[in-house]
Structure formats: C-alpha cells, structure tokens
Write a structure and sequence with these properties.
With about 240 residues, the protein is α/β, with parallel strands linked by helices. It has two domains: about 5-70 and about 175-215, Periplasmic binding protein-like II (D-Maltodextrin-Binding Protein, domain 2); about 75-170, Periplasmic binding protein-like II (D-Maltodextrin-Binding Protein, domain 2, 3-Layer(aba) Sandwich). Helices cover about 30% and strands about 25% of the residues. It is built from eight helices and nine strands. The strands form two sheets. Strands 1, 2, 3, 4, 7, 8 and 9 form a seven-stranded mixed sheet that branches. Strand 1, helix 1 (about 10-30) and strand 2 (about 30-40) form a beta-alpha-beta unit. The protein is elongated and about 55 Å long. The termini are far apart.
Length: about 240
C-alpha cells in the first residue's frame, strides 16, 4: 500500500492514545503517509476534509458510515504532589472550599457544563486555577500539581503521574468513527479503518468498554497488558 490517508481525531485521543501506536502501523506500511489532524472540531468527512474521523459526538450526516469504537470515561484526578500539599478532598463541598480545579473547555467536551452543575452559582475565579482548550496542556497542568481535573480513565497509565480521587463520580462520551463510503473502497483507507477499530477494542483495552472500570483495576483487567508499560515515554517526558 502507498499513498496518503487523512485522519481527523480529537486532540487528546490523537496525542495520548493513537500517536504512539500509529508509528508501528506506519512502519508496517512504509509507503503510507498518514496525515493526522488533531482538533476538537469534528472533521467534515462528507466533504473529504479527511477520509476518516474519530470524534466524541455522534455524526448526524446520513451519507457517512458510522462505527461506535467504544466509550471514553472521565474521572476527577490529581497529582500525588498536589494531594500531599492540599490533602485528598472528602466530597465536592470540600473541593469547592479548599481545592483548585483545572478545566478544559473545548468543542465536544462538557467540562464547563459539569462545573456549572456541580458548583451552581460558583464563579470560576477563586475555584478554577487553570482553564485551557487542549488535552495535552490539561493533562500536564494536572500532573504538575495545578489542581484537580477530569481526565480519561486511562490517564493512570500516562506516566503514572496522576491518581483518581473520586472514581465513584464519572461521566462518559461514546467514541465514534466516521468515514466516507467511497473512500473506504480504497485499500489504504480500509486498512487504517480496520486498524483503528482494533486500536479501541474494549476486549483488549477495558477502559474503552461501555461499563466503567475503576482505574485501580486496570493492571489485572488488561488481559496481560500492563497499562503503564504502554506509556513509558511519558515518564521520561515528565523528567524534562
């Protein structure tokens, strides 16, 4: 196979989940140029802005082929250093009075609405320490002790620099794959579609299952795959 394939994906899933694995896929197909466009705005697949899109909102265009890849679960997390300094919150009232939050506000995310629901009539100034629009900055602000924030449930594996503080509270977004039916007739596009479906397989990676799995259960539940070993590079990045 040779040629170019354009893939649109949310910034967090593209950066933390797909990028490390796509290297191995491309290495197996060295004639491919994979154009990965990470953004929180869904790509316009019908107009062939990309041949494939992965997004957190179900596509509404009728002429696309749509596949549910799995479900993304998010839970409140903080760094061990933050908890050592500020203590582990007992409940949401404790968070409001004694803790700082890190919010990610972007398309396809409901963090701002969740803040308004959990802390009604509470201004963000004085409670929120950081607000950003991309997942990579959001993760590192939390991992470096900037406050408590909602992270995907596989975040424990991202260098083991964050820990869940309230796994009983979580919310979920389905992960959708959309592709143009004509583009799927091209062998290189079809191959990447099949690979992406496997890359989100809940059987291999239980954090993408419909049912929420507590982060602390991941190592024994991962079918022999140790989640931290999948992200060893992030430990090294954290030392920079």
């Amino acid at each position: 196979m040779s040629g170019e394939v354009r893939l649109g994906v949310t910034e967090g899933l593209g950066t933390f989940w797909l990028a490390p694995r796509l290297v191995e896929y491309q290495r197996a197909h060295p004639g491919l140029l994979i154009d990965m466009r990470c953004a929180m705005r869904p790509a316009d697949v019908l107009r062939l802005e990309t041949e494939i899109a992965i997004q957190l909102e179900r596509p509404t265009v009728k002429d696309l082929h749509i596949v549910k890849l799995g479900r993304l679960h998010s839970v409140p997390c903080a760094s061990p250093e933050y908890l050592e300094t500020h203590g582990t919150p007992k409940d949401f009232s404790d968070i409001k009075k004694n803790h700082h939050l890190v919010l990610q506000v972007a398309d396809q995310l409901v963090a701002a609405q969740e803040f308004a629901r959990l802390f009604p009539d509470t201004p963000q100034v004085g409670t929120v320490s950081f607000r950003c629009n991309v997942s990579s900055a959001h993760y590192w602000l939390i991992a470096r002790g900037g406050g408590i924030g909602l992270l995907p449930s596989y975040a424990l594996a991202l260098g083991r620099r964050v820990v869940p503080i309230a796994s009983e509270y979580h919310f979920s977004n389905d992960i959708w794959l959309a592709y143009h039916p004509d583009a799927a007739k091209i062998a290189r596009v079809r191959s990447l579609i099949d690979w992406l479906i496997e890359a989100f397989s809940p059987k291999r990676f239980p954090w993408f299952a419909d049912e929420f799995v507590d982060l602390r259960d991941f190592p024994p539940a991962a079918g022999g795959h140790s989640p931290p070993s999948l992200f060893e590079e992030f430990d090294e990045m954290g030392e920079v």
